[in-house]
Specification:
globular, four-stranded antiparallel sheet, alpha+beta, Alpha-Beta Plaits, single chain
């Protein structure tokens, strides 16, 4: 089956995942994280991509970002990937592939999933049993969003700024979001949408994406579902 084109729409947030090839280590020393973030800042500005959240783990990266052009994310990831592979191979005297061939991405329904996705990304080190709380992990946007330090390339989304009327209020309300767990069904929904590169959102949002992009935003019904009254009616 032919691979569907990647969903890219300007001004719609994307959850992006880049993994090490065969899950190999991609960040071995603190300097590696620093280099990656410096180049993320550079290429995000170069290709007009607003980065809202991130986490760098030893063998993969999560980003939540909004492009202002249709190819902004693809350009950002292409040039960031190339630069970092050259840096890493030279630093560790190695050759060959570092990242998986294709990064994963999914469009995110801001109204219903944006702040959940922020939490999902920044809680990654907790789910991996690396720390007990996201505040303990250095290489994450939680350090900015909860007001421990300023990360210059972070663009605060409207849904974040609307958490309060001033920075202190916003940060306090943001920290409070982490006092409750993300439901297991939501975790699975995020993982599936990202891995399959479908859209993460409600039916209305998916329909809007299909109209704007000209391609499916979710998988076709299977088996009996395809023959159901709802499926047949949708084809009328």
């Amino acid at each position: 089956m032919a691979r569907l084109p990647r969903l890219n729409l300007p001004n719609v947030p994307q959850h992006i995942v880049q993994r090490g090839n065969n899950r190999q280590v991609t960040f071995a020393e603190p300097d590696d994280y620093v280099v990656y973030l410096e180049k993320l800042k550079y290429y995000a500005k170069e290709y007009e991509v607003k980065v809202h959240a991130f986490v760098l783990i030893t063998n993969h990266v999560h980003l939540l970002a909004t492009p202002t052009t249709s190819n902004g994310v693809s350009k950002l990831m292409q040039f960031l990937r190339r630069y970092y592979v050259r840096y890493f191979n030279q630093a560790y005297k190695r050759t060959g592939t570092l990242w998986e061939r294709r990064f994963k991405s999914t469009l995110v329904d801001s109204d219903n999933y944006f702040l959940v996705m922020n939490r999902y990304i920044e809680l990654n080190p907790v789910r991996a049993d690396m720390v007990q709380h996201p505040a303990e992990y250095t290489w994450s946007s939680y350090q900015h969003n909860r007001a421990r330090k300023v990360i210059e390339f972070i663009t605060e989304h409207d849904l974040y700024t609307h958490l309060g009327t001033n920075p202190e209020e916003r940060q306090a309300h943001y920290r409070a979001l982490f006092e409750r767990d993300i439901p297991p069904y939501t975790l699975e929904e995020i993982k599936t949408a990202t891995d399959k590169m479908w859209v993460l959102g409600n039916d209305k949002f998916k329909q809007q994406v299909e109209v704007m992009s000209g391609r499916r935003a979710s998988p076709l019904p299977k088996g009996g579902d395809r023959k159901s009254e709802a499926f047949l009616k949708s084809k009328e």
